[in-house]
RNA sequence: GCGGACGUGGCGAAAUUGGUAGACGCACGGGACUUAAAAUCCCUCGCCCUUUGGGUAUGCGGGUUCAAGUCCCGCCGUCCGCACCA
């Protein structure tokens, strides 16, 4: 009689077989068509979480499916192993970042193996090992040699207590997230990669990425931020000149002031002699940079007393201000203000009582005295602008640029929001930057034969700061050029560099170089890349840049690294918490005599394992202690709403977990974890198993079942399309339908054949179950190596269809007819329908619409 | 503020080019089997009504059409990205 599918036993057995036979090792020399399926490699933070499970299951289904359809599939896995959490762990727990990272890798690798992913572990890599980052150093120096790397002073967020540089995200309310110390802006010499050289390419290259989500392309487009306009100089009354950039040269006759950034050289120079200017600059720098602060921050300006001469009218002078809203980092750090047509300029001009002059009008309203309460930035005709009058905006822009270029005082130019990529990190746990600083020779690349520059592991974290900086021996080396005393660069590379080329290293990993070009080009670009949308900008942009840079210097002839991109949703879970209101009293900042009471609430979070639900409420298990049910949020350690995949896998088996994360929610949307959901998946695995197991009882069944044959072939084709389209939830639904049909069907040869085919259909999703059934059914070889079933096109179409019979667009009945029934016949059937007759009540229809094989609509 | 996405039963969701709304799953309810339970199987399941039938229904209000979840216009709401970008 029917047995149970023993997932634990079966999972282990088949995982061992796949391992021993190296079933999923990709062959570089294969004659088959190649497919490179890649999921974003994990950071080894400790244990895998459900997000990883979902991500890797999706890629796995596609990889296994492509194998079955005759592809040589590269589906590798590795570790994005450098980064700050390792250093934080080192400081908190006194462990070595390397030891901590490698332990985590071992744990997480075992967890991934437990899920039976079809990964080529022979290509496993960890970015923290010299045999990876050494090649990265060589690539970095290659870019250096080609002028794509440079060094420049740049300001950073410096935590004076931890003696380290902080990323913007690590600065909270102006304080270091860990130390709580007030963060300083500090100028440091840092290494930059010239990503801006590729700004145009990276932008235009997006068009060719047909298999990328529009959303991600748009985000990258906005991030690159291309603006076209005019750059020109205003001559100043003090004899100087200020360059400005504008996207609206057409409004040049509406100018009423020039404004420069607080850190603009003009402001700095004035500050030297005028303390009032210095005070104003200091005031500007005080303001926070958070979104909320910027929103409410008042526009502040300081009239320098200098005036600027209008380029089209030497007699026209406008004032030059220092203004807090002008950014030094964008454009030229100076703008001219057109209050009538720019809201920000409007606010500024209103405050400082500067003229607001209309130069773009809608219709015939060309009154130069602008009275509306806000700036007008819409379309219109130029007015009050001398030679531009009557032109539309675009013509006027061209006309002004033309005159500026002819007159030699300005030129059309393009400005990008994208900045060069600063890659220096004052951190230990990263790729050492392979540069040696010599007082005589400057920054000298480490010679190729001295690579890799190995990160020393004999370091301690008992003193704040970068341990490389105080390492007794590692830091001091002779200069490769003059052999004099020199120092190693102690900064390490941003970990985004590590992840900018790992997909190339997966494709080809010779020991003597980063990759073999010919082999890498066989596999690249990645056919399908899958990962979280949080990487939509930085990682994906950097990887695109790195690949283009390699192409530019002739190392690899691939422009875009990822032909297909899919961003999957998060795995979420309810949160459970108890809120405690904390009241604190402190003297008011405005008036120290007054005591202010501040209340804030602190949440204590509870793990789902501590909670039981009763009558829609949540209680701590075994008690009447009620806790609040919070929002459904991304599983995170801080909210304690995580579910450890390993416990679930041990309880239900790998296939049930895989099935669950593919079910129900469309993969791009968030998936809410639920206990009943995983139980449902487990029940399905058992139902399928009973079908497989029952084959022996119906072995002798004979006869065909045309309806079932059709269902089977429609399912084969449907699932194939769904997997190719990464619509796993739909593939899952189709499998449920087929299983429902098989359970209901009477024994027949068709049914037996369909059940055997079902093994192949579930194989990408539930591979352990499929292998087990495949073996018991007496098939030779592994189902992992089997071919995807052929579809009989004749069975894809039904010979009967159900048509809708409508009156005035409302469904009144349905009728099953032979497929392809003629329009006239359908009309006759519909008009003869009892319901139709009753509704028409003898009246003649005004019109009859017939859509063959679909419906008849009678317009009464 | 700018840009984008989304809005369908109690819940997750399906629904080719506009053509039978709610496939499939979860939950709930009823039943069978069982001494009992688990497991399994069967049935019901958008809402409303005068229930072999009818009305109504895809955030709200309009429109186009024989026909609208799908197309157009205007609102409302939720989420995401960017943000003083010149």
From TrEMBL:
Location in the cell: Cytoplasm
Motif 'HIGH' region: where in chain: 42-52
Ligand binding (ATP): 637
UniProt keywords, alphabetically: Aminoacyl-tRNA synthetase, ATP-binding, Cytoplasm, Ligase, Nucleotide-binding, Protein biosynthesis
Domain of life: Bacteria
Enzyme class: ligase
Enzymatic reactions: tRNA(Leu) + L-leucine + ATP = L-leucyl-tRNA(Leu) + AMP + diphosphate
Domain Leucyl-tRNA synthetase editing intervals: 221-404
Annotated ranges, domain Aminoacyl-tRNA synthetase class Ia: 418-574, 633-674
EC number per UniProt: 6.1.1.4
Repeat in keyword set: no
Gene Ontology terms, MF aspect: leucine-tRNA ligase activity
Limits of the Methionyl/Valyl/Leucyl/Isoleucyl-tRNA synthetase anticodon-binding domain: 705-822
Residue intervals of the Methionyl/Leucyl tRNA synthetase domain: 39-171
InterPro entries in alphabetical order: aa-tRNA-synth_I_CS, aa-tRNA-synth_Ia, Leu-tRNA-ligase, Leu_tRNA-synth_edit, M/V/L/I-tRNA-synth_anticd-bd, Methionyl/Leucyl_tRNA_Synth, Rossmann-like_a/b/a_fold, tRNAsynth_Ia_anticodon-bd
Chief subcellular location: cytoplasm
Motif 'KMSKS' region boundaries: 634-638
A Pfam family per the record: Anticodon_1
HAMAP family: Leu_tRNA_synth_B
Family the entry assigns: Belongs to the class-I aminoacyl-tRNA synthetase family.
Protein's recorded name: Leucine--tRNA ligase
Source organism of this protein record: Sphingomonas immobilis
Source lineage: Bacteria, Pseudomonadati, Pseudomonadota, Alphaproteobacteria, Sphingomonadales
